[in-house]
Amino acid sequence: MNSTQNERINQITTSTLIVGVDIAKFKHVARAQDYRGVEIGRPFTFENNREGFKLFVRWFRKIATEQGFKDTIVGMEPTGHYWLNLAYYLGEQQVLCGVVNPLHVKKSKELDDNSPTKNDIKDARVIAQLIKDGRYAIPNLLHGKYAELREAMKIRDHLSTDLRVVQGRVHKCVCGENRPHSSLVFSNVILFCS
User: Quick one: average pLDDT of 18-22?
Assistant: First the structure.
């Protein structure tokens, strides 16, 4: 266990409500627990839109006030891009948000009931347990121009990869196995002029 994991574990005290959220395309499932792993309340399903996020925040804040929790940490699995809207919304609401590694969720599933079966309610509990154990990271959510730059770099990387694939296909067609002397005729098959 390293020092950063110890720091994350120390952030979770007796007055911290831990909420695990299983992210999906349309509906998310959340479960709340205390620092010992005792489940509080019933699982809560909410939609992946602003109205659903408001209901979700209202749900866990109600639990926190009823049970006397002062802090809340919400953990989730970064599934595709579906988790980003919720993470940004929680940031606006000043709620601490953590992400867990999807591989850790998959490996930890069998610990509770000896069954590798997948369901949203079970996954939400596993995510909450990983948060409790300090096995999470705080996401770096960018805003404004920095977010646009990150998206532009991602698009550039995809385009560069696609270009290399097409260049390889062209090279294979022109200088393939059946045409060993074509490299003598064409100095560079990728250029438009030879």
Answer: 95
Whole-prediction pTM: 0.74
Spatial CB neighbours of 15, under 8 Å, sequence gap ≥ 6: 68, 69, 70, 71
Asked if the model's pLDDT at residue 9 lies above 90, the reply is no
* Cβ–Cβ under 8 Å, residues 71 and 113: no
C-alpha dihedral (86, 10, 129, 35), degrees to nearest 10:
-100
Residue 43 to residues 5, 64, 155, 187, Cα–Cα distance (Å): 27, 15, 37, 65
What the block records as the tokens of 177 is: 């196995």
Model pLDDT for residues 144-170, shown as the tens digit of each residue: 787 778 778 888 988 999 888 888 887
Phi, psi of 17, deg, nearest 5 = -90, 130
